[in-house]
Amino acid sequence: MLKTWAVGLVLLWAGMAIGTAHAQTDEEGAQARALLTEAVDYYKENGDKALAVFSRQGPFVKDDLYVFAINTNGIMLASGGPSVMLIGRDIMNSIDDELKPAFERALSQPENGEILEADYPWGNWNTGGRKITKHVYFQRVGDTVLAVGYYQPRASSEQALQLLETAAEAVNSNARETFSAINALDQRFYKDDLYVFVVELDSQRFVAHGSNLRLVGRDFSLLADRMGKPFGQEALDKIATSEMVEFDYQWKHPITGDTEHKHAYARKVGNYLVAVGYYQPNNANVGQASAE
């Protein structure tokens, strides 16, 4: 458990591009940056007394946004979120050896008064072990690095197509192994709110589902959303005459829990329909899908 949180922290500092912060049009991004600025000012004024304030429910915890702090020796000093369990622990004792050099390099960056940013995969209280992309702002103050991040759970149509290509190639190479990996939440087959599902065409039943294992073994052709749309049969009818199809339906978002519009892409790979879809929020209040 500790290693899971620690790996997320390493990916925070070492993962993807780290550079000077740029203007965010996203409201939550602006809120995260503002909270970090407040935390930095408070820490400069109060020193280490601020750490206890950061670690409790109060002015530095705002919905899913919270402050956490780690020193340049790798010790977690404060957290208002799930990483509270790591406070006082040396992160270097909990991470894989191959990650330590990158972690050390990131912590050794000099203090320059600038807010930096990075993306990394992380879980929160509601993701059930599923990691989604978090964008973090961080700034070094003396020997302490303060940070605030926000989740970016909505993937794009382009990312959906990329994941579909990855999954289709894997199914073509080793179908059974791929089904097991999808059902086990292998990170190769999900990203943020994207996930893969696979239907055997002969039986018309799910053999893999990257979000809801209860659907494995169920008849895809019988699925209809709460609006009554028989999207399962629609997808099967389309794939019978084409190698690549698209279809739309209402479905539960795996992170927000809301029922939203979903646009899915599907490819025929041998005797299987392999599909990935992306979500778009509804304007209307739509109920839960009947299969969930």
Automatic annotation (TrEMBL):
<feature type="signal peptide">
    <location>
        <begin position="1"/>
        <end position="23"/>
    </location>
</feature>
<feature type="domain" description="Single Cache">
    <location>
        <begin position="142"/>
        <end position="233"/>
    </location>
</feature>
<dbReference type="InterPro" id="IPR004010">
    <property type="entry name" value="Double_Cache_2"/>
</dbReference>
<keyword id="KW-0732">Signal</keyword>
<keyword id="KW-1003">Cell membrane</keyword>
<keyword id="KW-0812">Transmembrane</keyword>
<dbReference type="GO" id="GO:0005886">
    <property type="term" value="C:plasma membrane"/>
</dbReference>
<dbReference type="Pfam" id="PF08269">
    <property type="entry name" value="dCache_2"/>
</dbReference>
<keyword id="KW-1133">Transmembrane helix</keyword>
<protein>
    <submittedName>
        <fullName>Calcium channel protein</fullName>
    </submittedName>
</protein>
<keyword id="KW-0472">Membrane</keyword>
<feature type="domain" description="Single Cache">
    <location>
        <begin position="21"/>
        <end position="104"/>
    </location>
</feature>
<dbReference type="InterPro" id="IPR033480">
    <property type="entry name" value="sCache_2"/>
</dbReference>
